[in-house]
Automatic annotation (TrEMBL):
SUPFAM superfamilies: GntR ligand-binding domain-like (SSF48008), Winged helix' DNA-binding domain (SSF46785). Gene3D superfamilies: GntR ligand-binding domain-like, Winged helix-like DNA-binding domain superfamily/Winged helix DNA-binding domain. This is Putative regulator PutR for proline utilization. It comes from Collimonas arenae. Residues 22-89 form the HTH gntR-type domain.
């Protein structure tokens, strides 16, 4: 699939569908974001505008607008001389960003236990069961989309607008790594177990317990990402000069 987007040899049969004209800007942003999150476009990949336009069936104007949005989110980098490429986080950035996100998730959980409504709790439980069904079918994209919806709803239920905006901004940078952290079966099993504990804590309105589970859940994801990159997970990477 990646070659159909960025390669020089597979222009005949695009492997992704052309996009509808309606709400084109948002559609292009969402489409490219998903390609980055699901590692179709990997960190460091240079984006060829002409081939992307041909593959997605769009002109350069909506593509360039979408690239600016993704650059603002930290998902791509745009250089005047080199064009656009998928952002690649350093070891230190990965460590520190997950560390901060673990705190944001913990705070979200603690506040949500006090403020969540029965309807919101029911929605989260429904997503949880749907997520587990995706796991049983080995559907990682389906699992991940429901997984992220659960985290998002917990954050939204915290009813704190400043926390909400900070969370959304930071989470965009981590989505691809959070998706990748479930590539190993035992890591995936552990993450699913954590979600069982999250639901139980929410049902009990146990904010301290949910905060603890969410914090460790994010730190475990950090360690899984660093481990997959053959980096030590026992201590943070040394600061870069």
């Amino acid at each position: 699939m990646q070659n159909a987007i960025i390669g020089e040899e597979t222009k005949a049969a695009p492997l992704v569908p052309k996009l509808e004209r309606q709400r084109l800007h948002d559609t292009v942003v969402d489409h490219l974001r998903n390609l980055i999150v699901e590692a179709v476009l990997t960190p460091g990949t240079k984006l060829n505008e002409r081939e992307l336009c041909e593959t997605l069936g769009i002109s350069r104007t909506p593509l360039r607008e979408a690239l600016k949005v993704l650059a603002a989110e930290g998902l791509i980098e745009i250089s005047p001389n080199r064009g656009a490429s998928v952002s690649k986080m350093s070891e230190t950035e990965i460590w520190e960003t997950f560390e901060l996100m673990s705190g944001l998730e913990a705070m979200s959980g603690e506040l949500a236990c006090d403020r969540i409504t029965p309807v919101e709790l029911a929605e989260i439980k429904a997503l949880h069961y749907a997520m587990l069904a995706c796991k049983a079918q080995n559907d990682l994209p389906g699992y991940y989309s429901r997984n992220q919806a659960i985290h998002d709803k917990i954050n939204d239920a915290a009813r704190n607008s400043v926390l909400r905006q900070t969370y959304l901004t930071l989470n965009r940078r981590l989505q691809a790594l959070r998706f990748k952290s479930n590539f190993q079966p035992h890591k995936w099993d552990s993450a699913a177990h954590d979600h069982d504990e999250m639901v139980k804590a929410l049902e009990a309105r146990d904010g301290k317990r949910l905060a603890t589970v969410l914090r460790q859940h994010l730190l475990d994801k950090r360690d899984a990402v660093l481990s997959a990159a053959a980096l030590p997970a026992e201590s943070p990477p040394e600061p870069q000069a």
